[in-house]
């Protein structure tokens, strides 16, 4: 069977990854000189607790080629076909490092590396689709073709309470135009052509959630949907209840925004990711 690999910024719930046999390679979060593997050495909940109290803003680093090579060599004991669906190459080095690891492999195994042009559960939904195909017995070329067809149908929107974390981390980028009053607006970011892109800004959390609701409702058909939060589970569940008439809530993936992303957007983030159309 084809083995499916991704990185921890995919935000795939652990039970889903285990059920579908997805190998999730952790990226890194650093508080000063202390380095942690995302989701292994530092849980998502513990990260956000520390983020709220730490005088040092954390930094992040990508999976190294050697990290990925170890995963490839281990999986090559079980299969001769691997597909990697990586975080957008414009967000970090995971995609390029996976390509380097592929070239470094000594064991005979066919590896395909795909740039998702997405992140968080936008990436996660693509990976889940690939893993479901693999479990159904699809060949590697079939999975690759399907993943590439899904990529342009993935849409992500995210809102949070302040741009301060992006500013402090030097990642404000195209969101510079949303600055305004850092603490009084709720920015809406999306992912476009593999990059975080400013969509809008609204005043107040309720209006931001209304925006996310309207975003989901703008699609006539949706094949998969995910809602994520960092520290506000009750709010996320209430939001999912609002979406039930648009998409069955029992089919909505519930997830947490990873520490790698939380480093740049802060603790009060909520996001929706979806794949448009029917599969």
Unreliable residue runs? 170-175, 177-182
Number of strands: 13
| SSE string | EHEEEHEHEHEHHEHEEHEHEHE
Structural class: alpha/beta
Which characteristics define this entry?
279 residues; six-stranded mixed β-sheet; 37% helix; 2 domains; Hypothetical Protein Tm841, Chain: A,domain 3; four-stranded parallel β-sheet; globular; Rossmann fold; alpha/beta
Question: How would you describe what is shown here?
Answer:
The chain is α/β, with parallel strands linked by helices. It folds into two domains: 3-152, Rossmann fold; 153-276, Hypothetical Protein Tm841, Chain: A,domain 3, CATH 3.30.1180.10. 37% of the residues lie in helices and 26% in strands. The chain is built from ten helices and 13 strands. It has helices at residues 14-20, 44-53, 65-75, 94-104, 120-135, 140-150, 164-168, 205-217, 233-243, 259-265, and strands at residues 3-7, 22-25, 28-31, 34-37, 59-61, 81-86, 110-115, 154-159, 186-192, 195-202, 222-229, 253-256, 270-276. A six-stranded mixed β-sheet has the order 10-9-8-13-11-12, with helices on both faces. The chain has a four-stranded parallel β-sheet with strand order 2-1-6-7, with helices on both faces. A three-stranded antiparallel β-sheet has the order 4-3-5, with helices on one face. A hairpin with a 2-residue loop joins β3 (28-31) and β4. α3 packs across α4 (94-104) and α5 (120-135) packs antiparallel against α6. The longest helix has 16 residues, at 120-135. Mean pLDDT is 90; it is low at 170-175 and 177-182.
């Amino acid at each position: 069977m084809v083995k499916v690999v991704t990185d921890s910024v995919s935000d795939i719930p652990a039970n889903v990854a285990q059920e579908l046999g997805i190998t999730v390679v952790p990226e890194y979060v650093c508080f000063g000189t202390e380095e942690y593997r995302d989701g292994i050495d530092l849980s998502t909940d513990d990260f956000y607790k520390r983020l709220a109290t730490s005088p040092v803003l954390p930094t992040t680093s990508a999976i190294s080629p050697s990290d990925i090579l170890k995963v490839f060599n281990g999986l090559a004991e079980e299969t001769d076909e691997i597909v990697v669906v990586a975080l957008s190459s414009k967000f970090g080095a995971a995609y390029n490092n996976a390509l380097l690891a592929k070239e470094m492999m000594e064991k005979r195994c066919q590896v395909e590396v795909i740039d998702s042009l997405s992140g968080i559960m936008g990436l996660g939904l693509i990976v889940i689709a690939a893993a479901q195909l693999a479990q159904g017995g699809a060949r590697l070329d079939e999975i690759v073709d399907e993943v590439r067809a899904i990529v342009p149908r993935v849409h992500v929107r995210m809102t949070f309470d302040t741009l301060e974390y992006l500013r402090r981390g030097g990642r404000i980028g195209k969101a510079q135009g949303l600055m305004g009053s850092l603490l009084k607006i709720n920015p809406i970011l999306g992912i476009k052509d593999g990059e975080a892109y400013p969509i809008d800004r609204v005043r107040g959390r309720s209006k931001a959630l209304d925006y996310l609701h309207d975003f989901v409702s703008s699609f006539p058909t949706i094949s998969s949907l995910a809602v994520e939060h960092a520290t506000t589970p009750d709010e996320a569940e209430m939001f999912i209840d609002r979406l039930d008439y648009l998409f069955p809530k029992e089919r909505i993936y519930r997830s947490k925004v990873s520490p790698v992303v939380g480093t740049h957007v802060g603790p009060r983030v909520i996001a929706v990711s979806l794949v448009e159309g029917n599969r």
